[in-house]
């Protein structure tokens, strides 16, 4: 059977890339400590609010690390109330397939795709963030295979709205050892499946949880699902099933805000009010996801403005710092 594919080169396997760009003992210890704290929040042993925050897509290493270093300063001010997980999203899913697909594909947004350079670039950037700021970060599992290049570094994994309908993504998420946010927490169950040419068995991920990010109706209109009634519907669904650590993260952008990043602070305030009013909501809502960068808004790929998103619009730094400090006051 002929396939219309051009197998241009075989990429280096994850084990070899990890040997080329390893974590030292101090960084391994740091990842393990943060993993424990994050799992304690999802398990209800720690009542701090999780904040998964950062650019829509990680486009340039220098501005991304600049942004994360700013988060470090704010984290130290709110550490007793808010636990920050920076977003270093090195993939950008595309509904139509066209456009910038993220650093994994294009380490330089203005050059042609180079997957090996992309693999090296994303691992190097995550290691730099860990070493220079003390943050293990979040990334998206665009492909089930790409997670293996980063699985010893990441604090949190997201499965996007498009990917979560894919069986392989759900099965791989069931074997991931850190919290996985997805449209539904099906990955809590164990599975047997084919992965990288092996028959593998997963034990299930007890920290898999729902992300409420809104949705699109048949007319292409954004409809939110962060309101009180939406969260209570999720509470009831969790109660009717056999789920461990029932939890959700509220995505304050995407369809919840109609991709208007300036609505994110208002959405957080409404959900925090609901948490104070209802203890069941307080137990289930563990935190928020926010799209934020150095400059407000977005620009074209060749726009050239430092720290401004080249994908979806983001909240700029001054508003972001205010949002984090206000969240700590509400927590």
Report a brief summary of the structure.
The chain has helices at 14-20, 25-42, 61-78, 115-133, 167-173, 228-240, 264-277, 279-284, 317-330, and strands at residues 49-54, 82-86, 138-140, 156-158, 180-182, 192-195, 198-201, 209-212, 215-216, 222-223, 248-251, 285-291. It has 331 residues and is an alpha/beta fold. The chain starts with 13 loop residues before the first helix and ends with a helix.
Q: Could you please describe the fold and organization of this structure?
A:
This protein is of the alpha/beta class and 331 residues long. The protein has one domain (27-330): Aldolase class I (TIM Barrel), CATH 3.20.20. It is built from nine helices and twelve strands. It has helices spanning 14-20, 25-42, 61-78, 115-133, 167-173, 228-240, 264-277, 279-284, 317-330; strands at 49-54, 82-86, 138-140, 156-158, 180-182, 192-195, 198-201, 209-212, 215-216, 222-223, 248-251, 285-291. The strands form three sheets. Strands 2-1-12-11-8-5-4-3 form an eight-stranded parallel beta sheet, sandwiched between helices. Strands 6-7 form a two-stranded antiparallel ribbon. A two-stranded antiparallel sheet has the order 9-10. β9 and β10 form a beta hairpin. The longest helix has 19 residues, at 115-133. The N and C termini lie far apart (59 Å). The mean pLDDT is 91.
